[in-house]
Amino acid sequence: MGLNQNLLDFRTSIAELNQHISFAHTKYRNGSYKISSRNLREFIAESAFLRIFIAWETFIEKCFIDYLINEESITNNRPAKWATPINANHANEIIIGNQKHMDWSNPDNIRKISKIFFHQGYVFDTAIGAINVDLLDMKTIRNSAAHLSSTTASKLDGLAFRILGITVTGYSAYKLLFSNDPRSATIKTVLERYIELLDIAAEEIANG
Is pLDDT larger for residue 143 or for residue 148? Predict the structure, then answer.
């Protein structure tokens, strides 16, 4: 499909999911939510976050395969690579090898295989390395939103403490995602900061 299309598809997905989040929080003039159920608002927003994470994984997978089959970046660059698959399906088979699947949600795995297939990991190692911790944190939030357990709950509380600087118990993915992020220079929620970081990294990867 090409790197330009991959970036366009990613940004289109994010824009659409942001619309879902905005819809969930729409209010009447009197300040009350149009969706009166708090549980439903949280469900819509957390589901949108899960889809945002999937959109990122999909983008990374498509770009990795496109570069392996010798597609040019948006800026007309091609990486030096150590494999020559005959098509996208073959490239996917090479990446997976004898595993059941490739975990595109794990930034450490992506950086590791990027160094196997591309000279010095090409743009994947640097772009993903810059947000490695954030991607792992997003995965922690994703796991909590997808299947709440005592383990995911304690990890989420620990993450909330690290990000917000306050001790919390029983935090939800929703509450953390829509808290103001003290790490940002301007007022942004945790989710808004993550989306901004993903967009910067996606552009860097697509540009090569």
Answer: 143
